[in-house]
Design brief:
- This protein is of the alpha/beta class and 310 residues long.
- It has one domain: NAD(P)-binding Rossmann-like Domain (Rossmann fold).
- Strand 1, helix 1 and strand 2 form a beta-alpha-beta unit.
- The longest helix is centred in the first third of the chain and has 22 residues.
- It is globular, with a radius of gyration of 19 Å.
- The structure holds nicotinamide-adenine-dinucleotide (NAD) and uridine-5'-diphosphate.
- The site of uridine-5'-diphosphate has 13 residues, from helix 5 and strand 8.
- The site of uridine-5'-diphosphate (UDP) has 13 residues, from helix 5 and strand 8.
């Protein structure tokens, strides 16, 4: 039986990935220090003999044997989270990624890095193709995350070049769904919980900035197609190319919930990217992957999840 490590397995995307891999009868080891994740996300597997839950900070080295594949997702991801712990975010992306690459090297395991659309910064090219080098402010408030991920991409490729490690890189765009933390500060949990409570929806700036939202099941499918393909030493965008302004997103959520909330406008955070939309031509060509779940459907499932928490 093949053994797979998922770092960040107790987090939002990681826990959905663990569910899917166990369903397919892989042996799965989650490594997570629970800094932004939750034990709750994996309790359904506590009696599964194919599952092992290691509570560990990837900033510290770890030895594991008989590993075939590693999905490396450990990193804070919400702007509020990573700006609260900027040094830890930088060290997780750099030293943490190096430590996990060492496990891959010692096991000759295939390594997938969960990178991000933030490597493109506030993009001057639209939509963003993998060939775009990005427009990142290296000293701004988001730099702890953006530069950590850019370093992570660079060291992943360096392990490939120096040790011939079998690696692949996913640049993930905004993903949403059940198990996001209600208070993680990202736009979907904020707007949904505000609308459910009939509180004001807090649009930052004029709301004309855009994002393209991918439902988590589609994203996990993309990560697995990428890992279990023969694509090597390539970076591939994974995300949904349907682009919405943040104001449209607020209005849509309000409408689906039938909420009495007002929409209010607050100051825009520094360096907030103005536009973001993946070009997924490469993922379609290499993996035959594209998202299937429309925003309305994904939002309904996500709203239902947050309603049930109340
Ligand atoms: P999340 O915060 O829910 O999950 C991240 C997990 O990593 C958490 O469980 C956290 O406890 C763990 N973690 C953080 N630092 C750690 C450390 N030093 N050691 C061990 N575990 C650690 O976030 P998510 O949205 O599930 O994101 C997962 C991955 O996908 C991240 O690498 C993120 O950068 C990437 N990503 C996510 C999105 C998105 O929209 N959700 C977009 C782009 C990239
Ligand atoms: N945003 C907003 N109101 C909120 C939370 C976020 O208007 O309550 C905006 C934010 O300014 C950004 C977009 O929504 O333009 C997406 O923010 P998020 O934190 O989810 O992720 P990002 O894509 O910026 O990493």
């Amino acid at each position: 039986m093949e053994r797979i490590i998922v770092t960040g397995g107790s987090g939002f995307i990681g826990s959905h990935l663990v569910d899917k891999l166990l369903e397919l009868n892989y042996e799965v080891i989650s490594i997570d220090n629970l800094i932004t994740g939750s034990k709750q996300n994996l309790t359904q597997h506590k009696d599964n003999p194919n599952f092992k839950n290691i509570i560990h900070d990837v900033q510290d080295p770890l030895e594991l044997e008989d590993i075939d594949y590693i999905f490396h997702l450990a990193s804070p991801a919400s702007p509020i989270d990573y700006q609260n712990i900027p040094i830890e975010t930088l060290l997780t992306g750099s030293i943490g990624t190096k430590n996990i690459l060492e496990i891959a090297k010692n096991n000759n395991a295939r390594f997938l890095l969960a990178s991000t659309s933030e490597t493109y910064g506030d993009p001057l090219e639209h939509p963003q193709k993998e060939t775009y080098f990005g427009n990142v402010n290296p000293i701004g408030p988001r730099s702890c995350y953006d530069e950590a991920k850019r370093f992570a991409e660079a060291i992943t490729m360096a392990y490939h070049r120096e040790y011939n490690l079998n690696v692949v890189l996913a640049r993930i765009f905004n993903t949403y769904g059940p198990r996001m933390r209600a208070n993680d500060g990202r736009v979907m949990p904020n707007f949904i919980n505000q609308a459910l409570e009939n509180e004001d929806l807090t649009v930052y700036g004029s709301g004309s900035q855009t994002r393209s939202f991918c439902y988590v099941d589609d994203l996990v499918d993309g990560l697995m197609k990428l890992m279990f393909s023969d694509v090597s030493a390539e970076v591939v965008n994974l995300g949904n190319p349907d682009e919405y302004t943040i104001l449209e997103t607020a209005e849509k959520i309000k409408e689906i919930i039938g909420s009495k909330s007002n929409i209010i406008f607050k100051e825009i955070p520094e360096d907030d990217p103005t536009r973001r939309k993946p070009d997924i031509t490469k993922a379609k060509a290499l993996l035959g992957w594209e998202p299937k779940i429309e925003l309305n459907i994904g939002l309904k499932k996500t709203i239902e999840y947050f309603e049930n928490l109340k």
